[in-house]
Amino acid sequence: MIRLVLASTAVVLAVAAGSASAAGGTQICGQIKNGPSASYWSSVSGIRLKSGSTWTVLATGVRCGFAVKASKSLFGAWKAAKIGGSLKLKGYTCVKMTDRTYDGKGISSGGGLCHVGATPGLTPFAPNTFAFRMTGPYTITQIKAFFHLK
């Protein structure tokens, strides 16, 4: 459990670091409207969202169609999982990411990360990885600009 929490924390750090230099090949696969409600504050990237339900799916080396379909299928498990907990998806290791609460006084989650194989991913920009993140009002154009994606 501690390893998963640490891995989830590393994901948040890597996502923020990725905003300065996203790996080539990372795609924004699309947005999912009416997903589960989430609110969080990433103290690393500065993203602070309250009660949004629009999610963005990013993929690196994973087909977008699969990443979007898998993300939708993981929403129920994501809602039920503990912060930093694992999410089950055949052939992948997935975690519920760890963030701060919107008010900064506790922990929350604004998304999930899945990596092919038995090793948790550390960033959505790594090969064979996809992530789903509640992005609320942000458009795909804004997210591409933030992560320096084409």
Radius of gyration from the CA trace? 13 Å
Structural class: alpha+beta
What's the count of strands? 10
> Main sheet, how many strands, which sense, barrel?
6 strands, antiparallel
Strands in their spatial order, largest beta sheet:
1-4-10-9-6-5
Short description:
The protein is α+β, with helices and mostly antiparallel strands and 150 residues long. Helices cover 28% and strands 31% of the residues.
Describe, in plain words, how this protein is organized in 3D.
By secondary structure, the protein is an alpha+beta fold. It has one domain. Helix content is 28%, strand content 31%. The chain contains three helices and ten strands, in the order αββββαββββββα. A six-stranded antiparallel beta sheet has the order 1-4-10-9-6-5, with helices on both faces. The chain has a two-stranded antiparallel sheet with strand order 2-3. A two-stranded antiparallel ribbon has the order 7-8. β5 and β6 form a beta hairpin. It is globular and about 35 Å long.
